[in-house]
Amino acid sequence: MTIEDFDAAVASRQHLPIESGALLRALWHDAVGDWDAAHRLAQDVESPDGAWVHAYLHRREGDIGNAHYWYRRANRAPQSGDLDAERRAIVVELLARA
């Protein structure tokens, strides 16, 4: 999958296949406006990447204190820039490692 494939799936609201992994599916749900589904998927992934997605989601939610906790668990600096740009950066990095 490429970032263009991810963007096309978001634009068409076509669910990502299960083999895409929970974190990419979580970010897809976030991109289409389903924060609750995104959070459910991300909170079950116990890894630095899972913590990173979890941090981003709490930042999107506006819970900055909780977001900072998850950024620390992810060994990432807390973010404060554009949320969509952060989501895209996470997707690009996850895809690069897939």
Instruction: Tell me the β content.
Output: under 5%
* Category by helix and strand content: mainly alpha
Which stretches of 5+ consecutive residues score pLDDT under 50?
A: none
The string of secondary-structure elements, in order, is HHHHHH
Stated plainly, the CATH topology is called Serine Threonine Protein Phosphatase 5, Tetratricopeptide repeat
CATH-derived architecture: Alpha Horseshoe
Number of strands: 0
The number of helices is 6
N- and C-termini, Cα separation: 9 Å
User: What does the radius of gyration come to?
Assistant: 12 Å
Mean pLDDT: 96
Can you give the helix content as a percent range? Answer: 55-70%
The shape is globular
What does this entry look like structurally?
The protein has 98 residues and is mainly α. The protein has one domain (3-97): Serine Threonine Protein Phosphatase 5, Tetratricopeptide repeat (Alpha Horseshoe). The chain has 6 helices and no strands. It has helices at 3-12, 22-31, 35-42, 48-61, 64-73, 83-97. The longest helix has 15 residues, at 83-97. The model has no long low-confidence stretch (mean pLDDT 96).
Summarize the structure.
The protein is mainly α and 98 residues long. 68% of the residues lie in helices and 0% in strands.
